[in-house]
From TrEMBL, chain A:
Cofactors, names only: Mn(2+)
Enzyme class: oxidoreductase
Protein name stated in the entry: Superoxide dismutase
Any one GO MF annotation of this record: manganese ion binding
Binding site for Mn(2+): H61, H109, D195, H199
Keywords in alphabetical order: Antioxidant, Manganese, Metal-binding, Oxidoreductase
EC annotation from Swiss-Prot or TrEMBL: 1.15.1.1
Function: Destroys radicals which are normally produced within the cells and which are toxic to biological systems.
UniProt catalytic activity: 2 superoxide + 2 H(+) = H2O2 + O2
From TrEMBL, chain B:
Example GO molecular function: metal ion binding
Functional description taken from the UniProt entry: Destroys radicals which are normally produced within the cells and which are toxic to biological systems.
InterPro entries (UniProt xref): Mn/Fe_SOD, Mn/Fe_SOD_BS, Mn/Fe_SOD_C, Mn/Fe_SOD_N, Mn/Fe_SOD_N_sf, SOD_C_sf
EC number(s) recorded for this UniProt protein: 1.15.1.1
Major enzyme class: oxidoreductase
Name of protein: Superoxide dismutase
One Pfam family in the UniProt entry: Sod_Fe_C
Organism annotation: Friedmanniomyces endolithicus
Length: 230, 258
């Protein structure tokens, strides 16, 4: 378990993430550089989200799954950099699925762990500011939005995520399903994500994913979701 | 288009011709799974072995939940979707080969739930507690050597494919329409039996072995370490069943390339 003093300071961690150490090729002056990703700390202890999500799941999810996405994302970055440096366009493009998967996996899990919180850090507290208003406007009520969100989660075939998103042009809210580790990019920005991959709940809920989709609302960090609004 | 129809026709005829096990496996089993009744809904096929029989490679708890919960749920949902339609009573492999005939509003459900039922039904038969090595010189062994160079290269190819499924899916060794063996993967509950129109020309075919790489298939025991699960799979592959499947597929091809 991490004991980093940065754990509770989300803003500071986010700033450090964007200023991650640059790795440059030794001899080339024109080769593209890449920023090595590192596993961000959780802002809470692994067991802090119980009983909604077990400490065993949180630890595996963070130290194994998320870490693996980080590691592999760095590998893919390296491979794409090499391909681009060598002028091998085909090879760089062939790496796109791997980039989407591992890079998306890193992005998604970073956002996910940030939008969860223990009850004593506001987890489960419904939103009250602009986000609450926007939810009412688009869904009629917070409960109606939750119902749609759960339906989206339940409808995912295979592995994927459901996100509350904001349309970058209109500002409108939406609930969307994303397959595998496809990240929320392009037309929409992510506000709140829930991981529906089996590893997110299996050790505790087994095949009873409907239970997980119900219990997780008790640890959602709506303040973080609201801070993501534009 | 013509190739797609050819492949589909060939797969359909295979699906319809046989329901159960071939002579090799038949001779080793006391009881054989009876074909499902043709006028009622799908039911969960029993395993030919106990839930604990594949230990330590596949753990008992996973086998039990996988069979009684996951597979059962596909069947329950499929039956609900097909209620009062003319598709009730079709053998499941027949149903998934006929996806193009399913009405648009049902197609997604039948593909996901029907694919799940077909894939898992195949999977249980594809496993055995009494695994023996594939006999060298046997037709399947020769086919593998022809397609991959050696059994070892085939295994590496299969392991790499199974590892690289990005999300939920399956890894397969299939017989293609020209009689050649190939390692392919499908996402979610897609099956090579669904034909080229659904899974593409390169993936359509008749499964000989298959491995479920959805997380529910291995998470309780192997956690995130899918490669370990894949290695364990080799200890429980039913090569007798696989050989029967291979012979079945090859015998229905007019001019196999070999």
């Amino acid at each position: 378990m991490s004991t980093s003093m940065l754990r509770n300071n989300i803003a500071l961690r986010a700033a450090l993430r964007t200023a991650a150490p640059q790795a440059t090729k030794a001899f080339s002056t024109t080769a593209p550089t890449r920023a090595l990703a590192t596993l961000p700390d959780l802002p809470y202890d692994y067991g802090a989200l119980e009983p909604a999500i077990s400490g065993r799941i949180m630890e595996l999810h963070h130290t194994k799954h998320h870490q693996t996405y980080v590691t592999n994302y760095n590998t893919v970055q390296s491979q794409i950099t090499d391909a681009l440096s060598a002028g091998d366009t085909a090879a760089a493009i062939a790496l796109q699925p791997a980039l989407t998967f591992h890079g998306g996996g890193n992005l998604n899990h970073t956002l996910f762990f940030e939008n969860l919180a223990p009850k004593n850090q506001g987890g489960g507290q419904p939103p009250s500011g602009p986000l609450a208003k926007s939810i009412e406007t688009h869904y009629g009520s917070f409960e109606k939005m939750k119902t749609q969100f759960v339906a989206a989660l339940a409808g995912i075939q295979g592995s994927g995520w459901a996100w509350l998103v904001q349309d970058n042009e209109t500002g409108a809210l939406g609930i969307r399903q994303y397959a595998n580790q496809d990240p929320v990019v392009g037309k929409f920005s992510p506000l709140l994500g829930i991981d529906a991959w089996e590893h997110a709940y299996y050790l505790q809920y087994e095949n009873r994913k409907a239970e997980y989709f119900k219990e997780i609302w008790g640890v959602i960090n709506w303040k973080v979701a609201e801070a993501r609004m534009k | 288009m013509q190739f797609a129809n050819l492949t589909l026709g060939w797969i359909l005829s295979l699906a319809q011709s046989r329901l159960g096990v071939g002579p090799l496996v038949q001779s080793k089993l006391d009881a054989v799974t009876a074909p499902p009744p043709t006028d009622t809904a799908y039911t969960l096929p029993p395993l030919d072995y106990s839930y604990a029989a594949l230990e330590p490679h596949f753990d008992e708890e996973t086998m039990r939940i996988h069979h009684t919960k996951h597979h059962q749920t596909y069947i329950t949902n499929l039956n609900a979707a097909l209620q009062d339609t003319s598709f009730v009573g079709l053998h499941i492999d027949d149903l998934v080969a006929r996806l193009s005939e399913v009405p648009a509003e049902l197609k997604g459900k039948v593909r996901n739930q029907g694919g799940g039922h077909a894939n898992h039904s195949f999977f249980w038969k594809n496993l055995t507690p009494n695994a023996t090595a594939l006999a060298e010189g046997s037709p399947l062994s020769q086919g593998i050597e022809h397609a991959f160079g050696s059994f070892e290269v085939f295994q590496q190819t299969f392991e790499k494919a199974a590892t690289s499924v990005f999300g939920s899916g399956w890894a397969w060794l299939i017989v293609q329409e020209n009689g050649e063996l190939k390692v392919v993967t499908t996402l979610n509950q897609f099956s090579p039996l669904m034909g080229a129109g659904v899974v593409g020309k390169g993936v359509a075919g008749f499964p000989v072995i298959g491995l479920d790489v959805w997380e529910h298939a291995y998470y309780l025991k192997y956690r995130n370490v899918r490669p370990e699960y894949i290695k364990a799979y080799w200890h429980v592959v039913n090569w007798d069943f696989a050989s029967d499947r291979y012979m079945e597929a090859r015998s229905s091809i007019a001019h196999p390339e070999l």
